[in-house]
Amino acid sequence: MLTIYGVPISVHTRKVIIAARLKNLPFELIPVVPVMPDSLPPHWRQLSPTGMVPALQDGDFTLADSAAICAYLERKWPKPSLLPTDVRHYGHALWLEQYASGTVFRDVVRPLFHELFVHPKVRNTATDQALVGDVLDRVLPEVFGYLERASGNKFLAGDALSVADLAVMSNLTTLQYTGITLDRKRYPKLAALYEQVVRVPEVAEALRSEQPMVQQMGLDGTFLGQLLH
Ligand SMILES: N[C@@H](CCC(=O)N[C@@H](CS)C(=O)NCC(=O)O)C(=O)O
Known about the structure:
Elements lengths: L1 E4 L5 H12 L4 E4 L13 H4 L7 E4 L2 E4 L1 H11 L10 H36 L6 H22 L12 H15 L10 H11 L2 H16 L13
Parallel strand pairs: 1-2
Antiparallel strand pairs: 1-3, 3-4
Helix pairs in contact: 1-3, 1-6, 4-5, 4-6, 5-7, 6-7
Bound molecules: glutathione.
C-alpha cells in the first residue's frame, strides 16, 4: 500500500491524495505538518529533501514533490489518465500544473493563508495588512485573470480532468478556507471550472473527508456548501 505524508488541507498533498483516489489506489496518510517539528517522522529529510509536504512511499521507493509524485502514479497506474494524450494538451496540462504550484501558490495562496490564518490563529502574531492588501489588489487579479482566460473549455487541458485541474482546484480550495471567496462575477469561467472539478465524485469525497480538520482548525469550509451534497 502507498503511504502519503502530509495533511489534506495542504494544497500539494491534496492534489496527490485526489490523484490516488481517482486511480483507486489504497493509501495510508501519515500526518506531517512541516512547521510542527513533533509531527515529522525521524527519516523526514530523506523522504522530503526540501522538508515540504507531500512525500510518497511505495514499498522501498520514496519520492517528494506533488508533480513528481503524480507523474510517477500516472506512469505506474495509467488508468484513468490524469495527463492528456494529445501532445498540446499534455504540454498545457504540465504548464498549468507548474503555474498553479509556482505562481498561484507562491504569490497568492501561500501569503494569504499565512497572513490570514497561520499568523493570527496559529502563531499569535499580527497579520501584515499591507501585504494582504497588495496580494488582493494587485497580485491576485493578474493571476486569476490569467486563469480565467485559460478556463472556458470542459477542463483546463482538453476534455478530460487532468493534473492541471487538480492543481488549480486545490489552490482555490485552501485559499477559500481563509474566508477569501472566489469572485464569480469577475471570474465566471474559473468559478464554473472550480465547481465542475469539485463535483467529480472522488474530489468531492476527498473534500468531504477533510472537513472535520477544517472545522477543528477554525478554517471556513462553508463555501463548499451544496457542492459536496
Ligand atoms: N513543489 C512542491 C511544493 C510543496 C509545498 O509548498 N508544500 C507546502 C504545503 S502545501 C509546505 O510543505 N510548506 C511548508 C514549508 O514551506 O515549510 C510540491 O509540489 O510538492
